[in-house]
Amino acid sequence: MSEELTHEEDGLHDVLPVSGMYESWFLDYASYVILERAVPAVQDGFKPVQRRILHAMKEMDDGRFNKVANIIGSTMQYHPHGDASISDAIVNLGQKDLLIDMQGNWGDVRTGDGAAAARYIEARLSKFALEVIYNPQTTDWQLSYDGRKKEPVTFPVKFPLLLAQGVEGIAVGLSTKILPHNFVELIHAAINILKNKKVTLYPDFLTGGKVDVSDYNDGLRGGKIRVRAAIEEMDSKTLVIKDIPYSTTTTSLIDSIIKANDKGKIKIKQVIDNTAAEIEIQVKLAPGVSPDITIDALYAFTDCEVSISPNACIIHEDKPKFLGVTEILKMSVDQTVELLKRELEIKKGELMEKILFSSLEKIFIENRIYRDIEECETWESVLETIDKGLDPYKPQFYREIVQDDIIKLTEIRIKRISKFDAFKADELMRKLEEELAETEHHLNNLTEYAITYYQNLLDKYGKGKERKTEIANFDTISATVVAANNAKLYVNREDGFIGYGLKKDEFVCDCSDIDDIIVFRKDGICQVTRIQDKVFVGKNILHVGVFKKGDERMVYNLIYLEGKSGRTMIKRFQVLSVTRDREYDLTKGTKGSKVLYFSANPNGEAETITVYLTAASKARKKVFDFDFSEIEIKGRGAGGNILTKYPVRKIQFKSAGVSTLGGLDVWYDEVVGRLNTDSRGQHLGNFQPEDNIIVFYKDGSYELTSFELTNRYEPAQIVSISRFAPDKMVNAVYMDGDSKTVYVKRFQIETTTANKRFAFISEAKGSKLYYANNADSAPVEVSYKDGRKKEKKEYDLSEMIDVKGWKAVGNKFPIQTVSEIAPRAVQQPVQEKDTEEGPMDLETLKDNIRHEVEDEENQLGLFGGDSSKDD
């Protein structure tokens, strides 16, 4: 009895707790999902289901199409997960248009339409797949899940399929997202790796569009790309979407546009889907809506721009690894070289065996060894006789002659012996030896052989596989700038409330529901807050408006009473960036300080005010004027300058002033086709509010536009862009499409309509504008061909022709074979300066020192200067 209990107690030590069982099972399950379902192997780029589909298709392959339903049935011999997963995987492979030839309705990745039922569609392996995937001699095999059949562990793929097709999968605690890359670029990159050259790879998508790859990070975790639809302006009321971003469909894109319109982010009338062979989505704009701003708003608020984060995870040596796409390509190239080497070695062995047997056969027949076996009575004696007859020739063979070789000689038919032709036999052996020498040469020059292999793939299959997605640099769109005004801002000044729900109170302006609002109060407090239905910001509001971060044109003019000293201070300042909902004191913060006068000036205007002092003040002049332009613009934390030390009764606005900021310097960034004030690209000049930009297009038209930073330009269509000078001439050189004659013309812009193109050259097909500028002179350098030689010549267009009407044809240009016209750099005269300075006299030195001291004291608040406080 005690022994039984002891055995039972010992058995308890072998029992695994439920928690331990769960941990073990979960790890097993996670490993299974990662290795067997979701993540591709780096060797061939396939998940198991894809590999089994292609293996089944190869077994069925006879050059004809097979019903997909039949392919699914064959694949189920290897894949134990049901027909639905196999069907989806086949359709996904087919839509990538690389490995499978399709017949029937396979759906459309652009529109999101699904494929027809498996019984209605057909498939077969493409010629490309047959060439790069399969080779039974170099394939590693394993038993299928039920042990009845063999399937490949991985295919011996000699191409970076993983990068060409891309892959996405979610496992347990792990995911992978490798974006598709261009077929042609992958081959070029593989060749460059073999040549030890630097390689850079970027994604390419069948849906086209534009992609910003500046943060791609080689496809590793942490990187991202931005993909945009290609949007064109059909006319002032219609936009056309030609390509859509990867991972979207026309249906999802249209839904996102309608949703943004319903939320008031954009203003459109209608969306029309005309997609057929090519994508075409028309967006009809609401009246008075800017097409340029709407394009930006579509990128900001809809799926016309999407951000995609790659995560290149693969299975390598039965473990998940995170690698960059360049490293994955290098592994593919190394594998391809190794597979090519193995194929050449196999071929070499086969050729050597063919040469050996051909030599044996020739010796066997020409030396009539077959006659020696006529008198042999046993099989053993037959083999022994042949072996003895071959003895004199054995040293010439690369290996020992074995019994199987002798048996093979006995199988030669009499008819073959009787018709044996020694000359043909020698010719065959010569060809085999040449082929063997060529194979050995390839083995000795494996890199060159691999480069030739890749080049052959490009020549055979590269046509039609050029890049579809344009690589571009995108500008960052501020949502608050392009959002449509879908809300109204109200204010209750006395009680201190603002918001779009106070419809019974004072209306301020139209705004967006994502705008920030800036508030100034009588106690000198400034605050920025997000617009809401109703929000308390403090009583006695002086000013409220939409806040634009970093707006250097908005200048605030402020006069306040400093509570401690009783002085009246004056200041001009900007509010460029703040922390939302934080209160900033614009006074010195002393008790009793309050605002006496305030104005907000969108373009830095400086008005004149009249100051009235109290009657009891000791000042001799109790009423005086002050011009705000007399003080500098400083930060919001500056204490300001002393306006007066006497008590002030009231301050009144007297007259408006002009901007003290001067013009706005504007640059044109030819990479993204946008204007900016950040010194990027071509400097167009200093602009005043009334100024315009003139754009000359390659089709021979010009357009006047404002210098709003939201304007969009297409760099590929532009000949030149500059600040418009109405008093200067346009100098142009163009070719007439009908006569192929080159003309030069000069004219003055007579139109004033903005945002409308006017053609000023022949509208015949093939007409082309070579050069145009809006300036007094136009020195150019003309490149042309004189026979086979390239020549250059300089002209000044302003001296070649008089000014005529803008519709005039112009004069024939001296050179009619123009290839390029570029502006000639004009040498600027060097201004001479006197380098010999006389000695500074004592009085001048004293004046300089006195001015420097006064400047320092002004900065410290002395002599009526700035009275800055710490911020």
How many separate domains? 5
Question: For the report, how would you describe the main beta sheet?
Answer: 5 strands, mixed
Count up the helices.
Answer: 19
Radius of gyration in whole Å, from Cα? 41 Å
- The level-1 CATH class of the largest domain: Mainly Beta
- The helix content, as a percent range, equals 25-40%
Structural class of the helices, strands and pairings?
A: alpha+beta
How is the CATH topology of the largest domain named? Neuraminidase
Quaternary structure type: single chain
Overall geometric form: elongated
Features:
871 residues; alpha+beta; Topoisomerase II, domain 5; Topoisomerase, domain 3; five-stranded mixed β-sheet; four-stranded mixed β-sheet; 19 helices; 28% helix; disordered N terminus; disordered C terminus
Short synopsis of the structure:
By secondary structure, the chain is α+β, with helices and mostly antiparallel strands.
Could you explain how this protein is built, in words?
This protein is an alpha+beta fold. It has five domains: 24-177, Alpha-Beta Complex (Topoisomerase II, domain 5), CATH 3.90.199.10; 233-305, 2-Layer Sandwich (Gyrase A, domain 2), CATH 3.30.1360.40; 333-457, Topoisomerase, domain 3, CATH 1.10.268; 485-655, DNA gyrase/topoisomerase IV, subunit A, C-terminal (Neuraminidase, 6 Propeller), CATH 2.120.10.90; 664-823, DNA gyrase/topoisomerase IV, subunit A, C-terminal (Neuraminidase). 28% of the residues lie in helices and 27% in strands. The chain has 19 helices and 47 strands.
